[in-house]
């Protein structure tokens, strides 16, 4: 789910002790923000929730304190903190979610709905050659071999002849499905399953990449550049550190 999202809404609890637990080293606020960025969700809205809590009582100083700390962490993760709106809300009472709250007249920014409406849909790389890394391959009775993965670039359509690399297996796509519904085509960002002709589950596996056999199909390579994000490393990473992959 997260890997298909264009925007993440990070919910931060404003209550005394709750925010501190979430932003701590092992806290969920940190984990969710890092996970969203790692999975490629580059736009974010932060909701400072539970502004109605007795320890907060709709006040601005607590909101400012939380915003300052979360902004610093988001910047560290890789987000442009100047483009991340912080909306103080009460999910329980509905304040600042759809309509502006009379309890927080000091807040002049957008409501949650307005912040969502202001999100710019990213340009999808439909015009590039097809690249679909396989997350899994299933054998489904009565249907056959069904590889599953997310379209990264290009478009996948029924009737296309695709090549899987490495392995150089070429076959025709019989159908494309998302959430058990047939699709005329799958675009970048879509998580899909597609049925292929005359290919065994032993011929292709997780990690293979599917491409259009007629338009720059994927090939084996000697080396490639990668962005590696390390989650919860037990030690310290410094110059000269030699990881084992």
Automatic annotation (TrEMBL):
Q: Which CDD domains match?
A: EF1_alpha_II
* Keywords from the UniProt entry: Cytoplasm, Elongation factor, GTP-binding, Nucleotide-binding, Protein biosynthesis
Do you know which Pfam families this protein is assigned to?
GTP_EFTU, GTP_EFTU_D2
Q: Which SUPFAM superfamilies match?
A: P-loop containing nucleoside triphosphate hydrolases, Translation proteins
Question: Which residues belong to any copy of the Tr-type G domain?
Answer: 1-126
The main location class comes to: cytoplasm
What would be one Gene Ontology cellular-component term for the protein?
cytoplasm
Family matches, as InterPro entries: EFTu-like_2 (IPR004161), P-loop_NTPase (IPR027417), T_Tr_GTP-bd_dom (IPR000795), TRAFAC_GTPase_members (IPR050100), Transl_B-barrel_sf (IPR009000)
Stretches of the chain forming a coiled coil according to its record = none
Iron-sulfur found in the keyword field: no
Q: Where in the cell is it found?
A: Cytoplasm
Gene Ontology MF term list:
GTP binding; GTPase activity; translation elongation factor activity
Name-wise, this protein is Translation elongation factor 1-alpha
Whose protein is this, by species?
Colponema edaphicum
Traced from the root, the source organism's taxonomic lineage reads: Eukaryota, Sar, Alveolata, Colponemida, Colponemidia
> In the UniProt record, what gene is named as encoding this protein?
EF1A
């Amino acid at each position: 789910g997260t890997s298909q999202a264009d925007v993440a809404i990070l919910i931060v609890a404003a209550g005394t002790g709750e925010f501190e637990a979430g932003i701590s080293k092992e806290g969920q606020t940190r984990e969710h923000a890092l996970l969203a960025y790692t999975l490629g969700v580059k736009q974010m809205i932060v909701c400072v929730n539970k502004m109605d809590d007795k320890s907060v009582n709709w006040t601005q100083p607590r909101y400012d304190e939380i915003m300052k700390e979360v902004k610093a962490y988001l910047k560290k993760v890789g987000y442009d903190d100047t483009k991340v709106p912080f909306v103080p809300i009460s999910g329980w009472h509905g304040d600042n979610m759809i309509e502006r709250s009379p309890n927080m007249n000091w807040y002049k920014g957008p409501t949650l709905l307005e912040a969502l409406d202001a999100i710019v849909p990213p340009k999808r790389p439909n015009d590039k050659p097809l690249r679909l890394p396989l997350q899994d391959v299933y054998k489904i009775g009565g249907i056959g071999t069904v590889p599953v993965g997310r379209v990264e670039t290009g478009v996948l359509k029924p009737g296309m002849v695709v090549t899987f690399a490495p392995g150089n297996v070429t076959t025709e796509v019989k159908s494309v499905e998302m959430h058990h519904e047939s699709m005329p085509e799958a675009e970048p960002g879509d998580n899909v399953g597609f049925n292929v002709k005359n290919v065994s589950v032993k011929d292709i596996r997780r990690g293979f990449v599917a491409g259009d056999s007629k338009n720059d199909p994927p090939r084996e390579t000697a080396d490639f550049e990668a962005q590696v994000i390390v989650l919860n490393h037990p030690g310290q990473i410094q110059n000269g550190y030699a990881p084992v992959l």
